Amino acid sequence: MPAEATTDPMVAHVAEHPWVAEARATPDGAIIVRADPAVTTAGPRPGPLLQEHLDHWAEVYDWVYQDAAGRHADDLDLSGWRASDTGLPLPTEHMREWLACTVGLVLGQRPERILEVGCGTGLLAHRLHPHLNGYVGTDVAPAAVHRLGRAGLPRTAFVQAAAHETSGAGVRAAMDAVFGPDVAPDCVLLNSVTQCFPGLDYLATVLRQALGTVADGGTVIVGDIRHSGLLTEHFTWLEQSREPGHETDLQARVRAAISADEELSFSPSAVVSMLAGQDWPVRMSVRARTMEDNTELTRYRYDLVLHVGAESSFDGEAPVRAVPWSHQPGEDVAATLRAALADQPVVVSGIPNALLNDGPAAVTPYALRQAVGELDAVVLLDPYDPRLLAVAAPAACGFLTVDALSALGGATGPEAHEPLAGFVRRRLPEVLRDHLRRRAPGLRPPRIVVADADDRATP
């Protein structure tokens, strides 16, 4: 049967599907479709295709947590934590240090009441709750919520809820029970969870809810973020690790791997754009990961700390000085840094990250953390160049307003890699082929291709 005779009635069937905005046949008998924007909307209620993306990750993690292959103890369940290059579990001692750095980051903001969105196996819940007046954790995986609920941790509650449901009745009821009626958390924590988000629109929805939930003067912490500005370096390392010495078509393989990547990566500048024009005064600090081991968790990830409200500014009387890094070969890193930090408040900037840069002036984030020691100082990531580090002392002067961050310039790489478009390209044709089998039984469904978001499917 000619392609036109088979395809034309099928185009009409495809076009009638509520998830399709436009459809047309091609000369070779395929059907090109454009998804209705409503199916991928992020809020206030997720569209059906975006919800499928969220459900996929919920099912993955529920299975991982039920299997509990990485469970070492009640408070150390590392299920799901595997190296991208080998697929093997990440070293336990490295994960212990990862935990210690994350706990230090959170407790450094002096919270009393934490709402953790995406609490997973409770790695942070077990370590944070003894220091708090109350802790509430949410997660999409029933296995994680049930196990943590049975653990009997004092002054805690756990709720099955997605990240966009922070302001829902179930979460509010749990906070009322733990914090007190209508008492807000002074810290909302999202750690190692944004990689499962479908895109920036969903991230913006979740962040706005978090900012609206946290108490004035409180903190929103987004931790363990995959940096989109380092995505090419990350996937180049992965491809070289998987096929050592095989440089043929390396760049093409890297591009293909990034295109197929199913996790969200974004830069600090993407968050700056989201926060611009919001009703809440927000100051942001971009933190480097400072573990000792040179792994993907140290090289390609970072943390964001958002201080919310009028009390979130640096109140020092002296202006903050900006000092360029001037380390010379042979000099002691600690001596160089402490000399630069002696006349506080100060930010020492332009420090090449030795995990990503060669050269005598390069230093690892871990070496900077060691050099800082007990000083009131933090190791920062340059908000627009992830290959550069900075150190701020005291730590409070490491925060900048959204306006100040906007004025610094633009990102050196892509603002984000969003997996939702790839998910739609894979999933929507499956849905439409099933639809055609019901509407036109006995006919073989043609090839269905999803047009890019900025392309129209009409002739």
Automatic annotation (TrEMBL):
Leader peptide range in chain numbering: none
Organism classification: Bacteria, Bacillati, Actinomycetota, Actinomycetes, Micromonosporales
GO biological process, one term: methylation
Residue intervals of the Methyltransferase type domain: 115-219
Keyword DNA repair: no
The protein's name: Methyltransferase family protein
Keywords of the record: Methyltransferase, Transferase
A single MF term (Gene Ontology): methyltransferase activity
Recorded superkingdom: Bacteria
Keyword field contains Methyltransferase: yes
Species: Micromonospora pisi
